[in-house]
Amino acid sequence: xxxxxxxxxxxxxxxxxxxxxxxxxxxxxxxxxxxxxxxxxxxxxxxxxxxxxxxxxxxxxxxxxxxxxxxxxxxxxxxxxxxxxxxxxxxxxxxxxxxxxxxxxxxxxxxxxxxxxxxxxxxxxxxxxxxxxxxxxxxxxxxxxxxxxxxxxxxxxxxxxxxxxxxxxxxxxxxxxxxxxxxxxxxxxxxxxxxxxxxxxxxxxxxxxxxxxxxxxxxxxxxxxxxxxxxxxxxxxxxxxxxxxxxxxxxxxxxxxxxxxxxxxxxxxxxxxxxxxxxxxxxxxxxxxxxxxxxxxxxxxxxxxxxxxxxxxxxxxxxxxxxxxxxxxxxxxxxxxxxxxxxxxxxxxxxxxxxxxxxxxxxxxxxxxxxxxxxxxxxxxxxxxxxxxxxxxxxxxxxxxxxxxxxxxxxxxxxxxxxxxxxxxxxxxxxxxxxxxxxxxxxxxxxxxxxxxxxx
Length: 456
Description:
Layout lengths: L5 E3 L24 E8 L3 E11 L7 E7 L13 E9 L2 E3 L5 E3 L23 H6 L7 E2 L7 E6 L5 E15 L2 E16 L10 E8 L3 E9 L7 E9 L21 E7 L3 E15 L2 E10 L2 E12 L2 E13 L22 H6 L15 E3 L5 H6 L2 E14 L2 E13 L8 E8 L3 E9 L4 E8 L3
Antiparallel strand pairs: 1-7, 2-3, 2-14, 3-4, 4-5, 5-6, 5-7, 6-8, 9-10, 10-11, 11-12, 12-13, 13-14, 15-16, 15-25, 16-17, 17-18, 18-19, 20-21, 21-22, 22-23, 23-24, 24-25
């Protein structure tokens, strides 16, 4: 039996939504079990089997997975004997929070993944270690949408970084599922610098996740060029059942294609169309900053808009605009705020985010509804009551193209302010974002926003 303990500590202030505990990309009912087999083409050529079970001693928001390779079929000198890895479902996906992990020491022949031999808490000698290496916060970002990218850190001293990209879904077969199952494919560029075992701690890892089961296959091609080690992990058996994954269409993407040139018209209040440009300024880990600026029309506008995408949907976090307008638009409320603290309609994003969050759900489906909350921050800002609903996907044609767009309708009421009341319909195109908006105001006017051209 090897001696010693590998351990890691990382503090995370995160809150787990209750709904995420029941199912997901790594479900964890009390009776869940998985058996993985892994090998390293250089340092552990003979496959090692590991049985993974739920640690029932862990309660609260986190859960833990225990593993053991106490299997007579394993090699005489197997890798890590036993271990535990902690996980947490959060609004931003799956995390590996404190205390991180603990296990027996890795075999002496494995590369040292620290700058010194003493007190090295890093290892790649298990299936779960290959899962969390370089990507503890998060292990898997959610919502998992097309072209989603995120950065993460890992390692005993947070000296390992991972840059992940969701590549979409594909059919995969593993011993646990000889008939093909649909898996989400995530590729991670892992980088570690300064370890004695460099470049073993760096490389490209591909992980296949099956909804309702967890990771079913991992291939880690370590750094070092031709002939570099390759670690392969495959799921041999489990009592968990594959489920259809959530839809991964990205209706409000944080990519360079988002935004474009927009035209805003209102025959009653805008005698001349307002043309504005909206561009993605920066994006990281599901949070993005957009910039809006005037191109032509009666307004001179410069604005910034911050959004986040989490499991509770696409949320408008903050906005700030400076504008000079020749158009006389009716005032907005709420009456509880002084006039200089009230919002204005200066850009298409102002019209889109007006009222309450989320702008749209994380995984929208027909019939989804949500409404205003009188106790929320949104209500203190807008003073709007009402509800929103996902109508479905419709074909919409605008000057910027023809799209199969998700349609969201909202009924809004801002007491005492007809221009802030009415019915709003928004069309979101996958990979593009906002392509059309029609706001039928309570004063009888209609604001129409259309995408004129996008950036690709």
